[in-house]
Amino acid sequence: MEQSTKQQLELLAYKLLYDIFFLWILAVIFLLIAQNILPNYFFSQISLAKMIFGLFAIAFLIGFFGKRQNILIDSNQENPKKISRNFIFLLILSALLIVNSFRNLDLHFLLISSISALIVFFFFLKIIFSDQK
Questions:
Q1: Residues 68, 50: one domain?
Q2: pTM of the model
Q3: Burial class (CB in 10 A: 0-12, 13-18, 19+), 106
Q4: Quick one: 26 and 63 in the same domain?
Q5: Alpha-carbon span 33 to 26, nearest angstrom
Q6: Number of domains observed in the structure of the chain
Q7: Could you tell me if 24 and 55 are in contact, meaning their C-beta atoms sit under 8 angstroms apart?
Q8: Which three-class secondary structure state does DSSP give residue 38?
Q9: How far apart, in whole angstroms, are the C-alpha atoms of residue 73 and residue 64?
Q10: Residue from 126, 100, 128, 127 nearest 114 by CA
Q11: What does the pLDDT read at residue 20?
């Protein structure tokens, strides 16, 4: 096989794996939402560990083909400290899923654990967005 054809096939595999990875993440998110709505319906049929293992395998293959094609991810964006709308949406979605999973707990325990989680999250964001290296 010609070298340019092999490189084109590797680039195609990289792009397809990247799309599959994105769709797989969306599938996991929607299955988690469905699992909260209908408990023990989806993950009794599909193992969450296998789905997460599949994500790691696809991420490894993306890294492998990306390294072979010399594709580097540029982390020097215009404003890396800016919080995107997607991050806020995922944060709210995660908070709703966590609150939904705690709906049967005692109110006092829920308040204490929520306040503790908010404090940890605050310090986590403070560490991430600090200017010192």
A1: yes
A2: 0.57
A3: exposed
A4: yes
A5: 11
A6: 2
A7: yes
A8: coil
A9: 13
A10: 100
A11: 92
